[in-house]
């Protein structure tokens, strides 16, 4: 509801957990949804739920992987969903890890229409405000602990 009709959108959910937002996107007719999570048990639950819901098409996919192991250069997403998971990692305070995250998000947001951030920490909000403002995103919609950023570069 925050970004209107998503039927033409490819959506990436980073740290998808059991796929809640992926399924919501599916039922709201998103073109393609990809959920990624490092925890194989959560991906198993998402796939089991997909089967129980008789979702047999390839428009929704769950991947058990570290996001740093995926080549995002070959993929195109209109919407990126991100809800704090990486910032809870104990490695985040380390410079090399922080640099990897920064490079990853800079590449992911370069060509997207929307970036949806679920933020419980002021440091997370500040971090993404800096990156997204640099890439000409503006806060489009704010609801409780969720911020929708819109790309204003005419993507």
Structure description:
The chain has helices spanning 20-27, 40-52, 95-108, 122-134; strands at 10-14, 32-37, 60-64, 79-82, 114-118, 137-143, 146-151. The protein is of the alpha/beta class. The chain has a seven-stranded mixed sheet with strand order 3-2-1-4-5-7-6, sandwiched between helices. The longest helix has 14 residues, at 95-108. It is globular.
User: What sort of overall outline do the alpha carbons produce when their principal axes are compared?
Assistant: globular
Number of strands: 7
Helix content: 25-40%
Strand order of the largest sheet: 3-2-1-4-5-7-6
On the 0 to 100 scale, the average pLDDT is: 81
Q: Beta fraction of the residues?
A: 15-25%
Overall radius of gyration: 15 Å
Alpha-beta classification:
alpha/beta
Low-confidence stretches: none
The largest pleated sheet is described as:
7 strands, mixed
Distance between the termini: 20 Å
- Helices, by number, come to 4
Q: What is the helix/strand order? A: EHEHEEHEHEE
